[in-house]
Amino acid sequence: MNAISEYEKRTQKLINIIFAMAIIYIYSIIMRLFFWEYKNVGKLDLLGDIDGVNIVVGVIAISACLLYYYVYKEAELFVLIFIYLSIWMEYVILNATRIANIEGIHVLFTFIVRIALMSIAIRSNKVLIYKIEKNKLLFSIIYVIISVLVMIVDIKVSITYGKVYAEVDKYIGFITIIYYYYLLYRLYKMALRKNRLIYAIFTSSIGILIMRRFLYITKFVEIEDLIMQCNFITFIGFIMLFIGLCADVVRSVRNEEKLYNEAKRNESLFYTINENVKEMIITVTKDEEISYINGVVESKLGYKKEEVLGRKIYDFIESEREVISDENGEIKFVEHRWICKDYSTFVTETIVNESISKYDSVEKIIVARDYAFRDKIKKLEKQYNEIKELEKIRIQFLANISHELRTPINIIYSCIQLLQNSNDNEERFISMYNKYEFTIKQNCYRMIRLCNNLVDIAKLDSGVMNMNFMNYDIVNLVENIALSVIPYVEEKDINIIFDTYIEELEIKCDTDSIERVILNLLSNAVKFTDRGGNIFVFLDADEKFVTISIKDDGIGIPEEVKEVIFERFVQVDKSLNRRNEGSGIGLALTKSLVELHNGKISLKSKEGEGSEFIIKLPNVKYTGDEHQERNVSLDSKPIDKVNIEFSDIYELY
Asked: Same structural domain for residues 581 and 611?
């Protein structure tokens, strides 16, 4: 881009310089400031026969113009060349008349024809200019015939009407010259607009050649000097055209050489980029033929470049599914399934641009990326979302734990303060202690329960949770647990009903774990069941499973929570002023303990109609060592287990 910009700037400068030089030269003609004596020019051996020189130089200059046109193919150039042809023909014919001793010839009509031709080129009548260019030979023949005929008319009229025609030519000539220079100014503006030096050369050389007519009309010098001066102006005009064309061609060649070198560098950069990117890059012609592929296409499809180029793009695409496109449908995002040389396939996400270039050789470009990259992004996105969710859970967990700890600590601390205020009176201290003993113990149970759950969750995560399996009567175990909570549920006026289809059944189980599971589910049922409600504990068995159902007619669980209720730190009511307390890890621990028995736990619930937790334990006997070492728990007394599990039900204290 820098090279082009510099070239354009230099061209603008040269256009202005050439235009200025032409004006200076024309001005010197008008002021007759030539430092040569024109009547002696013909005596110079250098120019000898200046008429012959002008004819030859004119032929060379016009031929150079035609060659220039065939290189650059600009319609305006073709039209402007005929102005020079007309000037050259006029010069030849006028010289012929002088040789025939015919004097006083005026070329008014010929000049008007040139003005008309100049107007066509300058006004950029595209339709007419393109018609002329399309029918070059026919136009050339017609224009030459018209020019010759008009010159003959000028000669006939000049001979017949002599002085009258001379006067008409004088007055009309000034008007036509002024208009001609106006057209040349327009041509100069075109040179600046198109940034083409050739139009500046045309402007200057034609402007100089017009001065011959100006001298003929004004008759500033004697006829001999006038003819010699006009011949010299003709020489300058044609030689300036020829030299200007040569200079412009040299400049164009040098600039094209720079552009070529820059294009080679860009091409090298293009291939370097395309061969090192990880995406498949393919260009396709209007006929759906592949015109370019990069190295990734070769490695992905297994074909050599020469095996792919020239073949149809859909020879290598098994299926295509458009995903999205822009408003104009020019850029599409699609999914392609590609067929490799070994008949294997792979899928890519592909961008197809339908209007890449103004050149006919490229209709669209395809940039395809393997889905494996997309899968990696999805995995990273999934990992990010998991980390984000874990962070959210961690923050929620810390908020829950801090609330769970702060509440009992505040209560215990308040009780201690009351006892401290009464320690100076033994009777009042004993009364206060008896009054708040249950409250202190209850909140200690709550903290023990929370600690137990946290310790067990940590053990589960680290894989060191030991299960003490033995054969135990599951019916008796569940019934005793259900009966042990009756005093607690009666405080809330809730009925608990136990029922079973079997009287006795020994299975492999860890009694402590089963006890914690049942107590946790009963605790939840009590929390979310209103006064006067019912809790049903039902037990049944078949050949494969023992089924324990704990059902209540409480508030139920919302649909959106059911899917995640067994995940850690999930609570039905997450507000800090919630109806019942809890850390949100009880059901997660319950599920883990059931699964350690190779069992399953599920939930049936409808909001407003209650919930039912169903536990299925394998109906198998324990065959290993029954005398395993048991874990020591903080809640060693059976009664304490119930107190600890029910410690977060406010109404009980």
From this structure: yes
In a domain, 266, yes or no: no
Domain ends where: 344, 374, 404? Answer: 374
Is residue 264 in a domain?
no
pLDDT digit string, tens, across residues 598-621: 999 998 888 888 899 999 999 998
* Cβ-based neighbours of 544, under 8 Å, separated by 6 or more: 618, 619
Picking from 106, 112, 116, the residue whose alpha carbon sits closest to that of residue 176 is 112
Closest CA to 527 of 562, 556, 568: 556
What pTM, to 2 d.p., does this model score?
0.43
Q: Which helix (H) or strand (E) holds 336?
A: strand 331-339
What is the CB-side half-sphere exposure of residue 178 using CA atoms within 13 A? 5
* CA atoms in the 13 A half-sphere facing the CB of 560: 3
**What's the pLDDT at 8?**
63
pLDDT digits (tens, 9 = 90+) for 89-125: 888 888 777 776 777 777 788 888 888 888 888 775 6
pLDDT tens for each residue of 26-72: 555 555 434 444 444 444 444 446 777 778 888 888 888 888 787 77
CATH of the domain at 53: 1.20.1070
**Do 242 and 313 reside in the same domain of the chain?**
no
3-state secondary structure 542-579: CCCEEEEEEEECCCCCCHHHHCCCCCCCCCCCCCCCCC
Q: Does residue 416 sit in the same domain as residue 511?
A: no
Q: Are 365 and 439 in the same domain?
A: no
| Predicted confidence (pLDDT) per residue in 362-397, tens digit | 678 888 887 766 677 778 888 888 888 777 777 776
CA 333 to chain centre: 11
- How far is residue 114's CA from residue 462's CA, in Å, rounded to a whole number? 102
Residue 628 has pLDDT above 70, yes or no: no
Place of tokens 């995940």: 567
List the CATH number of the domain containing 541: 3.30.565.10
Q: Are residues 147 and 66 part of one domain? A: yes
Identify the sign of the CA torsion 581, 586, 588, 594.
negative
CATH code for position 282: 3.30.450.20
Same domain, residue pair 524 and 488: yes
d(CA 363, CA 382): 39
With beta carbons less than 8 A apart as the criterion, state whether 436 and 418 touch: yes
Give the domain extent around 179.
2-257
| Same domain, yes or no: 122 and 249 | yes
- Give the 3-state secondary structure of residue 137: helix
Q: What is the mean pLDDT of residues 510-530?
A: 86
Three-class SS state of 317: strand
- If one counts the domains in the chain, the total is 4
Same domain, 520 and 443: no
